[in-house]
Structure formats: C-alpha cells, structure tokens
Amino acid sequence: MKMFSLLSAGIAGLLLFASDPALGTSCVTNECHAALPAVKFPHAPVKEGECGSCHTPLAKEHPAKGGSFALAAKGEKLCKECHDLGGNKKVQHAPVKEGDCTSCHKPHGSNARYLLEVGDDRTPLCVNCHDGAPFKAAYMHGPAAVGACNSCHDPHQSDEKKLMKGPVRNLCLQCHADFAASMKEASFVHPPVAKDPCTACHDPHGSGVAMFLKKKSPDLCVNCHRKIGAQVGKVKVPHKPVVAPGGCSNCHSAHFSKGPKLLPSTELELCLNCHGKDNVGTPALKNIKTQLEGKKFLHGPIQKGECKGCHDPHGSDNFRLLRGKYPAELYATYQDGIYEACLKCHEKNLLRFAETTIYTKFRNGNRNLHVVHVGTRKGRTCRICHQPHASDGEKLISKDGAMFGDWKIPINFVSSSTGGSCAPGCHQKFNYDRQKPVVYRPE
Amino acid sequence: MTVTGLAFSRVCKQLIVVLCFAGALSGCAGKKAAIDPVFFPPAPDVPRVQYLTGFTNSTDLREKKGGVGKLLVGGSETVTTLNKPYGLTYKKGKLYICDVQSGQVVIVDLVERTMRNLSEETGSGELRKPVSVAVDDEGNVYVADSGRKDIAVYNENGKYLRSMARGLAKKNLVAVAVYKDFLLTMDNASGLLFVLDRKTGETVNTIGNNPDRTKNLALPNGMTVDGKGNIHVVNMGNGTVKEYDLDGNMLSSFGRLGDVPGEFTRPRGINVDEDGNIFVVDAGHQVVQVFNSDKRILGDFGVTGLPAGSLNLPAGVVTTREHLDLFQKYAAPGFKLHQLIFVTNQFQSVINKAVSVYGMGEMLDGKGEAKSPETKDGKTQK
Questions:
Q1: What is the pLDDT at residue A66?
Q2: Rounded to two decimals, what is the model's pTM?
Q3: Domain boundaries in chain A?
Q4: Strand partners for A70
C-alpha cells in the first residue's frame, strides 16, 4: 500500500513537470522570459535552459498569484550547489559573508562578464555600497581611476585586510616592477619605502595632492620628521623650496637615491640647480656657480661639497639661512655673538682682543688689524674683504673686489712673510708687519 | 736547670725577634683582604672614575714582591722612595714627581716599572725644594724649586744645564709649564705669571699686572697649559681658576672659596685633559674636582674615609691617555679605561700611597657597549 502511494506520487509529479509550460526550453518563448538568455553572458543554467536547477515549481498554474516557483535553496546555498565559494579566509566581503551574491551578480545573465552589471570599470558597482568620494579626487591612482578595483582587491575573500590580494607592499611592487628594480640598486632608501606599505604616504585610490599623497609635503613628511617640522614652522627665514608646492620633494627624493640624505645628486650640484642660474627668483638669486668656477681658493665647506656647513637648507632665523648670527647690514661693530656664523669655525677670539700675538696674523706688531676693521664704530663685516664662497685671493680675500653697491671695491691685498699690504678702495695703501710694526702716524 | 731573670728576658727577646721575622715572612706570603672596586661616584650612580692602585716606592712598582727573600739569599737592591711628593708631570711613559722632602725629582718609568732620581748633582745643579716640574719634547726637564728660587734645567740624562727665571721670584716660583717655545712660571707672592722664551730665557710676557685687578692672580698655586696653549691657574687667594691666553688676556674664570661642590678651600694642582676637562686638586676637601670645558662640575674623587682610594693631603695631578693597557688589569671587570689620573699625596698611611692612580672610563655591558646614559646634547658625560 505504501509502495503504491509513493509510486503514484512520483508519476503525478513527473506528469506535472512535463506538462508545465514554464519549465525547460518552454520557459523562454517569444512571449515569456525572452530577455533572459538574450544577453551577452547568460548564466550557464539559463543558457542550457535548465531553469529547474534553481527554480522549483510551487503551483500547477504559471503565472499564478502569490508565485508559482520557489528557489531550490536560499541565498548562497543555491549558488554553492555549483560554485565553490570558499569562505575559508580571514576576511570576507560583506555580501559574500551574508550570502547575498545577487547584490553584485545578476543570476540570469548580464552583458558584462561575471554576471556583473558593470564592465571593466567596476566603480559604479562598488560605489553602490562604498563611499565614492575617493574616486572623484583630483589625483587618482590608475587602477582606481579606471575602476579596476579587482586589480588590488579580491571581491570575495582574502587573508589580507581590506580584501587586498596580497600584502600591500608586494601588491604595489608587482605592478611597479621598474620602481622595485631601481630601489634594489639604490644606495639609500627612505626607511618607510624600504619596509612599510606604500599606503603609509599614498592614498591608494586618490587624493587632492599630486601623486595622491595623503597630505601635501612638507605636512606629510613632518609627521615623522618632527624636528624639521618644528623648525620649518617657526623660522624667520624659510628656504623657499620647503614652502613652495612640492615641499621637501623639491630637494629630496621621496623614495631612494644614490647619495645620502635622499638627495638626487651631490649636495653642491643640487643647490646649484637653483643657485647656479641667473634667472631664478625675484629678485634673481646670486649665481654661485659663476662665483665658484675656476677659482683658486674655495671656502672649506665648499671644498667638501657642502653648503650646509654654513647654510641651513630647512630654514633659519639668520640672514641668508646661515647657521649662526651674522649681520645683514654691511657695517656692524663687533660684539660677542653677532659674527657667530663665521666664528663658530674660525678662531672665536679673533675679534676680542685689540692686542694679540695669537689669534690672527693680520696684525701690525701685536695690533690686531681685524679688530681695527671690525671692532670700531664702523665695523666692516667679513664679506667686505672676504668672499664667503671662493676667491682667487688667499684667505678668500676678494681679488676682483667686493660689491659696494654697483661698484666692486678693489682690495689689492699683497702678503709677505711677516705681513702684507692693502690698497683698497677704502683708504690709501697701508703696509703691516708683525715683527717690525709700521708706524702709521709718526709723531 | 734554672733560668735567671736576665737569661729569661734574653730568651724572650730572641723569641720575639724570631717570631717577628717569621711573621714578616708569613706576611709576604699572605693574601690581602679583597676590597671591592672603589668607584666615583659610588653606586647606584654610573661609575666614571675608579681607584686603581698606588705606589710609594720602587718595590710597590714591581710585579712580584720578594724583598725579604731576596735579602735572605744575599741579594741587594736600591729602593727609591717618595717622601713628600708635590708637583708632577707625565711625558712619554714616565712620571716626573717632585719630592719636596728629599729635594729630588723622581722619575717613575711606568713601562719598565722602575723609579730613580732625576739627578745626583751637587753644587749649582743640586735641587733643594722642588715643587713643580715640566718636560719638553726633547726630554729636557724644568724644575721650579722654591729653595733655589729659580727654574733648574736638566737634560734627559739628568745633567744640569742651566738656571732660568732667576730673579723673577718675589717669594717662590711655584709652578712651571712648557708650551712650544715658551716656558711659563709663576710667583705666588707677586701673583705674576711669566712667559719666557724657552731657548733664551728672555721674558716674553708678564701676566697678572692688569689695571683691572679682577683679571689678575691671587696667591696662585697650580698652573697648567692645555693643548690650545691656554694657561689655567689655580688661585688660593680667592678660590678661582682663571684661564689666560699667552698674550695675558683672561678668557674665563670660575670657582670661589667655599665648601660645596665646585668651590675650593685650598686648591693646589691642576690639569686639563684632551677633551678640555679640568682636574683641580683641593687639599682642604682632599678631593680632585672635575669640570668640563664649559666649567660645569662633573664630580669629584678621592674623598677621605674609604677603605682604598682616599687622598691624603693631595697636591698635584696629571692625566694621560697613554699606556692604558698597563693599568687595565687593576680595573673592575667591564670597566674600560679611557684615561689615567695620577695624584700625589703629601702624606702616606697604610691605605694611602704617595701616588694614587685612578682610571677614568665607562662600564661596558656584556656586548661591549657603554652603559652610561647620554646627556641632552648627545655627548657621553664622563
């Protein structure tokens, strides 16, 4: 009796299925569901006419009020019948976790691959849920700009945060292979570049700053380089490249370099990029390159290729970005401290004592002629007689003459074994002698 | 057999002599009680200076002591002893120490571990009361003698060459120093410092007669010249240490009479090391105070009352960075010496030798790196 009832139910079911106009190829007719397979990429069961693999009839009549079909299973369980959805990684995309496959995929088919509503530009799909603002920034990362979200993110699951396809650094360097190769050969690599994810400085989608940096330089850089940040923020005389667009990157390479301090060239070459031209800045910067070219004597720091020995490239409270005090005026009577820029390297007692046998050779007998020139009411600053960068004259004494307005004051300095003489544009010729002092005003 | 009182007394005396002799022998073989390393400042502060050893006579310098044993087998030796050492200097592995009491300059060869008198000359070349000594690069020895009231000059073999600065002393020439071609000496009564030409003896400059008396000397005692040629003078009169250049310009002044760190009661010898650190002996506090080149006090060492390493009426001080290896063995494990400091004690006792040897250094950790914390400016404070 039981066997009979089961058999009769099976036959009844088979008859019902076979006679249902909505199943199999009969679901798609000119009148019904014609659009379903008429897409470029129909879902495989649709293409094969196997509607029953997903849909189960509920009623004899179709269409019927209240629905005549039900899905064979709910949510992801239905998809899992055919698709291996994984689910074994640390991070799951929210729709995947919730089994809501159809929030991204069209179950019957689509004109785009992967049953998506969108083509290669996935932005319209992703911003349905995600904030679209980063994708409208002024400066965009290439993949984000073209909506190639999947080039970095796995849309289903990942072991990395943010559904990244791999560790961020590795992911970046997979595309930026030329960058990786150059970095490998570089002598100096910025530590965050050497070990941290690129997203430490860059917004991987886009930002309002060139190179889609998270902040403009120097604000970005001083997050770590705090000491320089504090300096840049308070100096009275800023170095213009630091505060100009580009900030730190105007002088430093952000990633790696052949030279120390992430400079793209030697320090001197870098500085002369701007300070070696006639037409940079208003008023134009002095062309230091021409001051150095062919000169017999270079100032000590410049001999070592260093400008930073005297100037602070990040800004200073002193005239000409000097590292110590130095008068901006042409005349300044010596006081302790006001010639710090020079005297922190040169003899600190040079200008302290009117009589000396120790601190200078520029003396008549024991009379300190440096004090005569700088320690008097009309104190002549060092630059009146000495060139700060280079000169053909020994002791960097200006051979061609120091600038005095538009006139170059000749110095006409001649040295001897025990003294020397000057015949400058300031006074008549005077000799001086350390051993046999010259009497200037005989009584 | 009876023993008379006289005979008993004789036997007892002989017994005492034998026992004393035996005691002396056993004393030679006995071991001294171990004393923990003496550091300045003491723990828990980071150690900067350690007392290493001391010596009074030539036997103290020998590696192995066998004096009595050697005498028993018929040997003999000349023992040179420091009685009342005062000023001293260091040159090429040797200490030159003025012994005021014996009227000698004793040369201590740290490498050969020997001690001998500079000169045995009599007559015009005889020293009387040497208080300060300097040695030039040729090995000539200049001795300020408050008995002779001049600078007696000897060659490196102790041969008397000449007298210098005679007539300059109002009372006593209390210090002498050499810098390049200059010889410097100082009279304590007039408070004048004389810069002489080392070859001719001619007075090149006289320091201490400035109309501004605050820039002059006050009962000067110790004097030294640093590597830059600047002269540092200790003034007992007002407890100051003044720095002059060879022209006589006063460059700096610090210190005063008092009893807190950085102040002096009876300042004596002075020395400046290669880093510009200034060592000033104070016979009142019986310590050596150390100042950095900014004249900031760093600390002191040699305080009285220690089981070892205390000073006893100290007078002179000298530092060197040569031959550290000879004294590293006296340092505590892990304490790496950077500089040796020799200080003379005018009096000796069981625990005080005529010359105390200290080592300036730093305690290293197991990896050979300094444990010392760094100062704000990034320099390791020593």
A1: 74
A2: 0.74
A3: 14-72, 91-214, 325-443
A4: A56
